Structures are given as structure tokens and as C-alpha cells.
Amino acid sequence: MSATPDLLSSIEKVISNDFCVLNTSDTLSDALALVILQKAGDILIVDNNGKFAGSISDISVLSQVPPQVSDVPIRYQIKLSSIRKQANDALVSTIKKNIGDVFQLKKVTRRFSKDGYLIYPLEELTNPYKTSADPKMVPILNNDETIAGVVSYQGILEFIKIDPFWVETKVENLFSVKLAVEGIYKLLPEDTLDKAYFAMNYLPINFILLCDSNNNLLGMVNRHQITALAHPLYFHLMDMPLSEIMKPLDSLYLVESCQTMKGIIDSFLDLEITVAIAVERSGSKVHPKSVITPANVIQLYLQHFRENTN
Length: 310
Description:
Layout: E1 20-23, H1 28-37, E2 42-46, E3 52-57, H2 58-62, H3 81-95, H4 99-102, H5 119-125, E4 137-141, E5 147-152, H6 153-160, H7 165-168, E6 186-187, H8 193-202, E7 207-211, E8 217-222, H9 223-229, E9 247-248, E10 254-256, H10 261-270, E11 276-282, E12 285-292, H11 294-309
Parallel strand pairs: 1-2, 6-7, 10-11
Antiparallel strand pairs: 2-3, 4-5, 7-8, 8-9, 11-12
Helix pairs in contact: 5-11, 6-11, 8-9
């Protein structure tokens, strides 16, 4: 492999078999098990002939069922036995349904085969118009519409991480180019789950940073957490302050503008970190500047590649 990865290489160079697959006749229970036990972000669905039928995201699966008891802070857990039974009955009834009956499967808008150019699935993964329910991996299909493998963020980062470009590029470079970097959306810790749920339904964000009135970063909540708790039978949780479920500051992956992008890529791959927060420090104060995801890193590389290929 050259020191400057070529995005006009064959997709076959980064194709992976690391994905979860279910049949349209499998149940929501099967999908839920993969999301909870295997941490599946996306599940590819095939029909009875083994042909690709679409995909579903973990967010879509979680939105169909009541939250896990372990996800609900103890003092907000349902105590009334009649409501607990209602929640249990709703869960048992829902998870028995077939995937094909529950979801409107999201097929890919562009078809990719393993002998195509790598740059095309990269463009699909970093499409700025992707929604939270869109897959975070691109299925690669055989001629008979069966699944040959997938292209994922991790596979792409592994492919491009050896480029010397990353050693010379700092976090601040992300701020000076026109990328579809997820905008910062901030709330106060005392703001409620209802407010976060509303924001995530109407804004293109997957993370909410929790800051005090002086813009000091205190923690974060993500779409996975919010979706898992937002269920009609748990309507009382909508008044719960976000401080009850936020990931505290010391559990977040913070980076500064002067750090190299090489270090961030290594952390995404080796530590399985899914988001970095660029910050500016002033004494003990930490002020957020940007949210960085694997998609942003790949967008930056796409821009670099195009500028140096013309």
C-alpha cells in the first residue's frame, strides 16, 4: 500500500464482512438483541432469497420499544405495578413483530459493487444530507443483489490513516474549511429530556453539549440515549433534567486545536471512540469549539484528495 492512499482504488481494498444481518421474517426481538448485546449501529436486512432488502439503524430499533430499566435513573423508574405491567405487555407484544412489518426498510440510493471506485461509497458515507436513521455503513452488492460486504467509517479510516497528511494536519484545520461538521448545540444541565428530544427531532444533530451559563462544558448527551428514553409509556421522563443521564466531562474525549488529526484517527480506531470534542481551555474552564466525528475526518480527506488530484 502506498503512503498516499488512492481513493480511485477498488472498493475491494476496504470491504469488510464485519456487519450484522437479519431476514425480513426475523423479529424486532432479534434486532433488539443485536443492538443491545452486539452494539450494532446498523443491521442489514435480506429477503427470503438472501437478496439485500434494506437496512435499519439502532436508533430506529430503540424507538420502537420501551427503555431498558437499567437506562432509567432509579428515582425515575416506574413504581406503579399497573403501569409496569402495561409497559411489559407492550414490550412483549412489540418485539414479536416481524422486521418487515415494523420498518419501512431504507434501501441504498446508489448501488455499489466491489470493483467500483472507493471514492463513491466515501461520498455516500459523508453525504451532508444524511439523517440519523440513515446507515453508517455502505452495503456492497454482488450482481445477484446478495451482500458482498460493507464499507464502514472504520474501514476507511484504516485505509487513509497512513497518509503523512494527518501528521501535518491539526484539529484547527477542520475549522477553516467548508465541511459538513456537526454544529454545536448546547443546553443547560437543568434542561429537560423533552427539550433535548425536540431538538434532535428537528435539527441535524446527534450530540448535545451540556454547558453552564458561562459556556463551560460539563457533559454531553447523544441521540442514542435520548431515543432510548423517549417512549409514550415513560412520558414522565420528559421532565427529567439532562444532568441525570449526561456523560460527565471526565468521560468525554477532548482535543485541542493544536493537536494533530493523526492522534484523533488513532483514538477512533484503537479506542473505539465515536466522537471527539474540540475545546479551548482557560485555567480550569473548558469551552467547546466543535464536535468531530469519523465522518468529518473523512470529509476533510476527500477535500484534500480532490485538491491534490486535479
